[in-house]
Design a protein that fits this description.
Keywords: Oxidoreductase, Porphyrin biosynthesis. This protein has helices spanning 2-23, 69-76, 143-158, 164-175, 200-212, 214-225, 232-251, 254-261, 267-270, 291-300, and strands spanning 30-35, 40-48, 53-66, 90-102, 109-120, 126-137, 177-178, 183-184, 188-195. It is an alpha+beta fold. The strands form two sheets. Strands 1-2-3-4-5-6-9 form a seven-stranded antiparallel sheet. Strands 7-8 form a two-stranded antiparallel ribbon.
Length: 307
């Protein structure tokens, strides 16, 4: 399973990078291979300051070693009974992770991540699970785009079980919640974690379907809007919304926290999710009935996009 998942994350990275490069031919990816002395490494592909994308990153990492006490505590708080041997928990984690921040405020930001974990307990038992998801963060609401995005993800889920999309859509809305703002980070998608049933093979096939849906759920939206005209006021609103993105990622995001708590992890790759630019204004409130107020309403009260 380790080698099959490693192949899937490498393929997903290559597919996404090819699709992004085709849309922004003047820009080029910085491809950065890195190693972790504690075990493993990864490849970060980052495009910055293109015509279409302000910052687009697609990372893969395959790391192993001993779980830090802080990371183990974070996992136990989610109900894992990890039994350490002499305080040590050998682990292996691999995943593909991407955040795309476009220049045009009419093109939404998109994030996806698919990962696989194995932890060896004191008695030699291997605990394994998959996690992941794909979600969209528009600056302005376009209902047609929202429906396309969610429908594409629903089709990927429905191949496996009709109950999965509604369950993981709700989990996504709940997970990407900025508590101190009372808003979601975006209009959601799907999110799941600690997935270890019905079987390793079935969960892997589900994760594979989700990973294969990433390009078709997002790239058509970029193509549709990347040449839309926009005003300085719309660009300003995009910067303020990006501030919210930063708040969620630094305060709440599980992957960011795990990365920062893992000894020898690559900080540049972990913080690749942050936009090139963002803005915070004191007491900024958009006018009622404005396009800005429209997206805020959906972020405060998530919608069902597919029924």
């Amino acid at each position: 399973m380790r080698s099959r998942m490693e192949l899937l994350i490498m393929e997903t990275q290559a597919e996404m990078c090819r699709a992004l490069a085709a849309l922004d031919p003047g820009a080029s990816f910085v491809v950065d291979s890195w190693e972790r002395k504690e075990g493993g490494g990864g490849i970060s592909c980052v495009l910055q300051d293109g015509e279409v994308f302000e910052k687009a990153g697609v990372n893969v990492s395959v790391v192993s070693g001993l779980l830090s006490e802080e990371a183990a505590r974070q996992m136990r708080s989610r109900g894992k009974s990890l039994k350490a041997k002499d305080g040590k928990l050998p682990f292996c984690a691999m995943g593909v992770s991407s955040v795309i921040h476009p220049k045009n405020p009419h093109v939404p930001t998109m994030h996806f991540n698919y990962r696989y974990f194995e932890i060896e307990e004191a008695d030699g038992t291997i605990q394994w699970w998959f996690g992941g998801g794909t979600d969209l963060t528009p600056t302005y609401l376009n209902e047609e785009d929202a429906v396309h995005f969610h429908k594409t993800l629903k089709e990927a889920c429905d191949k496996h079980d009709l109950k999965l999309y509604p369950k993981y859509k709700k989990w996504c809305d709940d997970y990407f919640y900025i508590k101190h703002r009372g808003e979601r980070r975006g209009i959601g998608g799907i999110f799941f974690d600690d997935l270890d049933s019905p079987s390793k093979e079935e969960v892997f096939q589900f994760v594979k379907s989700c990973a294969k849906a990433v390009v078709p759920c997002y790239i058509p939206i970029v193509k549709k809007h990347c040449h839309d005209s926009f005003t300085p006021e719309e660009k300003l609103w995009q910067q303020l919304r990006r501030g919210r993105y930063v708040e969620f990622n630094l305060l709440y995001d599980r992957g960011t926290k795990f990365g920062l708590l893992t000894p020898g992890s690559r900080i540049e790759s972990i913080l690749m999710s942050l936009p090139l630019t963002a803005r915070w204004e004191y007491m900024h409130n958009p006018p009622e009935s404005s396009k800005e107020a429209e997206i805020l309403e959906v972020l405060r009260n998530p919608k069902d996009w597919v029924h």
